[in-house]
Amino acid sequence: MAVQASGANMPVVLLKDGATQTKGRDAQKNNIAAAKIISDIVHTSLGPRGMDKMLVDSLGDVTITNDGATILKEIDVQHPAAKMLVEIAKSTDNEVGDGTTSAVVLAGALLEQAESLLLQEVHPTVIVDGYRKAANKAKQYIKDISDQVASDDKSTLLKIAKTSMQTKLVRKDSDKLSDIVVKSVLAVAEKNGSNYTVDIDDIKVEKKSGGSIADSSILQGIVLDKEVVHSGMPKKITSAKIALINTALEISKTETDAKINISNPQQMKSFLDEESKMLERMVDKVVGSGASVVFCQKGIDDMSQHYLSKAGILAVRRVKESDLTKLAKATGGRIITNLDDLFEKDLGAADLVEERKIEEDRWVFVEGCKHPKSVTILLRAGSQRVVDEVERSVHDAIMVVKDVMELPSIVAGGGAPETFAATKIRSWSKSLEGREQLAAEKFAEALESIPLSLSENAGMDPIDTLASLRSKQLAGNKWTGIDVMKGKVVDLKSSDIVEPLAVKHQIISAAAEAACMILRIDDVIATAKSAGPPPGAEGGMPPGMGGMGGMGGMPPGMPDMGGMM
Fold this sequence. Notes:
17 helices; disordered C terminus; 23 strands; alpha+beta
């Protein structure tokens, strides 16, 4: 790409051929337009009355969801500015699990409001400064109206989980599922003084289509999507003692190649006998520890299977490392890497280990662990599409319950905190000097895009709803919000529509950061991909050397030699 040098007619080549550059206002307009399109895609899926999206990938697999992070992940965005919004959806999903759609809608609204300021010749840096100050204020105002709760208050956690599921496909079964979610999080929560920490990896989620959502259950133990290795083994063991083995119950191959010369059948027989004795000794060590169930991360030889079944031991092979870790946490056992170290004290315990048939598959259930630090949620639904969406909904619910346990503060849902913060920021913005005041006012307007989208998706009149919401909040009821299912503006405390404070803070932080980052970009340079070697240049010759055949090896400019003969 050539750029004209100042004061001369000679172009200066800076970039490769094919590279493109968009500068100034055009670059900003382009980036803002891309971000707004992303926001428009997801804004119709916000809230309990939001619509679902059907996403079809290149292989023809269908995903039906209204989860913002999943939608943006699946549509495979190419535009660099739009990718930033996808990133904020992902980071919000990883941090707090919920509010991904709200974060993207708010980021889109912030950029839309900034566009009108850019047209009024307000400098992007001024807008960015105004937005950052307003974001900090918004978080402060929302914190002021939050309620402190007890970290392990089950009734509050149920409300939180239920509110998260109200916006999903599983709304009708939210009572049952929220109970499962809360029980599972409370089971794996670790208490440190007065605080709790929750590692959601300790909650194993298994899903299986067939049955209904109401058939979903929680197990005080682990479910493995594996079957018992040998048909002769017992399929059910009560009061199980469980060995967790990280080594193969088979003869490992030698590192170096070896050759054995066998001259008669007897030698062959003794060779095989020795091999089977080695395997028998391995199994004897397992039997000697008193184990009645074996979960092995590696393989189990046919002969080992035979010896184990003779001893009446139930064995499962090729268990995933993550599942083995969860089994250790659930049963209280220790993972063994050397069979010589296997003793009774290393065994885990469970009331029941059983192979059950789930639809067409056979799964092993480990149930009745005394104080499990790892549990399993088994999800069921009529079809694979539905069970996938149930899994996404349960993930969000687990995350919001975790958020409240780690930061025990809650606010109302239904656009209440956003409207309250917007009203407060409008009055606070008057204390700012210069053009930052305009940016803060626009931030307040953008915050109101959340209640506007909620009411719009519910088929309510957005302007009337927002006006009613503002007037009730100004009258002093800070927990007034939109109850979308009733189609009214009500006190949400009485409707039990509550959300974690951590989610609201994350939404505002992520949206403001993304908007500020996009606004600061005034130049987009896209480099061209390397074109690769020209056709026909693969024969080892440098490009451009192919035309030498007809020259007879003579240098250019030599006189015609035909007349000299």
